[in-house]
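cron nightly-structures :: item 1 of 1
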Amino acid sequence: MRANNIRSIWSSGGTVYNGWLMVPSSVSAEMLARQGWDSITIDLQHGLIDYADALPMLQAISCTDVTPMVRVPSLESGIIGKMLDAGAYGVICPMINTRAQCEYFVRSCRYAPLGHRSMGPVRATMYGGPDYGVKANGEMIAMAMIETAEAIENIDEILTTPGLDAIFVGPSDLSVSLGHAAGFDPRFPAVYDAIVKVADACRRHGIVAGIHTGSIAYTREMEGLGYRFFAYLSELRFMALAGAEALAGLRSRNVQVQEKSY
């Protein structure tokens, strides 16, 4: 079976840098994959993507060695299994607030006797190999999102879930849940303390900590806390930021030219 590159990086003590896709485009997926990210997540929760879009995007990522991930829209076994059957090698699941929810999520990612995932890895066998059905439990990644005050309160219980590979902090929802504004790289003391608490808890329980970041500086800061999986912005934000910067430069030059012409 094809090895999961994310697991290989983690087992060697490394950090995973993950690209993020929100636009339903196989071309965008292929372009980002060819840039050399360790993994790429297709966002079916807040992105503009559904299953019919995600399938060719997974195929495009498969042209490279980048590990394909998905964020599903909710805690529901059907879509989790369907995305794994399509060839995703890991699932990020939003709004995991209790150990019971986390147990259900992990079981949804695993075949019996470890879980209740239904057998039918249609495209996953094409991507993973003919022995996918007997080896998938050891390769698929189950990553639970921690993004509410309730989840922070229950973090130690959540992290004792058998088979949980990693958690992923959603900074915007966590900030809102704790009474602050949404956004990347939060500095609100209560939110930052919660992010530190998650890192410390993950270290105690031997679970990988991940987070979505919006700047290199904040990413480095989180690495210092022990985070080892980073989703960095998204292709949509890259386009918006680069476009805005380019246009500002163009308009600035136009202003200078007009001033010189008078």
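cron nightly-structures :: done
The beta strands are 16-21, 39-43, 67-71, 90-93, 141-146, 166-169, 208-213, 229-232.
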